[in-house]
Amino acid sequence: MAADDPGDAERPHDPAVTRVEVPVDTRAPGGTTNAYVVDGVLIDPAARTDALDAAVAADRPGDPGLEAVTVTHAHPDHVGAVADYAAATGATVVAREGHADRFAAAAGVEPDETVAPGESVADTAVRAVDTPGHAPDHLGFAAGDPDAPGRAVLCCGDLAVAEGSVAVAAPEGDLSAYLASLERVRDAGYGRLLPGHGPPIDDPQATCQRLIDHRLDRERDVTAAIDAGATDVESVVDAAYEKDLTGVRDLARATVVAHVEKLVAEGRVDEAWRARLADRGFD
Fold it and tell me: What are 161-187's pLDDT values in tens digits?
């Protein structure tokens, strides 16, 4: 359990947060997904473990107990134990409004309620924040004083990571939405981001800007490859990536497709690319 990292005791402005690293089948580095218990809400229970059981059962000063279970998005490495913890605790199961069917199919349980961006999760003080891009149903969950953004934290799922980058891959990834989400979170002034994978992020503004810059750099590489004459996705992948893609070429390919989709939508590359993507099953 990575509950209360060493710096947490020095951060009295943070809400009550427990982070548990859950081993799970994921392509994220480290092979774990972070589950969080934040002010009575269990977020992203990827699998049931003894450590997460202990976090859910722990007594916290002023904490009425677990009130809700939810996820940042319905990818398999975030939803695996939603049904287990809902059954074990009786907590309210909450899905993003407009995506209840997707949630139920992934989590194996129907949501009791839905939440829209800006609303509170069940009867808690945790607030849903709109962060699509990595996935269409992606939400962040904010806790802390909403009138003092620098004293609030955001469970940001797969919006951001402390090191490296986040996959924004077709067919679900939407780069325009992802960049807009990063900009909103950057400008909101959160004091800390709690990502779905890896350690907490204590420099939210700089990290969001780094991820924006990374995506725009990749976009320039993709655009340059197309301008230089690439006429298929594989050629763009070869030109846009200098690193060894062994084991991750499928992700690189899906990322390039997401970039090209954005460029087509913005009218920045030849319309013929729309048909090329459709021929590969992306439309």
Answer: 999 999 999 999 999 999 999 999 999
> Rounded to whole angstroms, how far apart are CA atoms 147 and 169?
35
- 115 in any annotated domain: yes
Whether 208 maps to a domain, the answer reads no
Q: Are residues 82 and 115 in the same domain?
A: yes
Task: Read off the pLDDT of each residue in 183-205 and give the average, rounded to a whole number.
Answer: 97
CA distance 245 to 253: 10
Whole-prediction pTM? 0.91
Q: ∠ at Cα 169 (216, 259), nearest 5°?
A: 40
Q: Are 258 and 196 within one domain?
A: no
What is the per-residue DSSP string for 43-80?
E---S--HHHHHHHH---TT-----EEE-SS--HHHHT
- What is the Cα 232 distance to its own chain's centre? 29
Give the three-state DSSP class for 99. Answer: coil
Taking the C-alpha atoms of residue 199 and residue 264, their distance in angstroms, rounded to an integer, is 36
CATH of the domain at 121: 3.60.15.10
Which has the closest alpha carbon to 197: 54, 57, 58, 24? 24
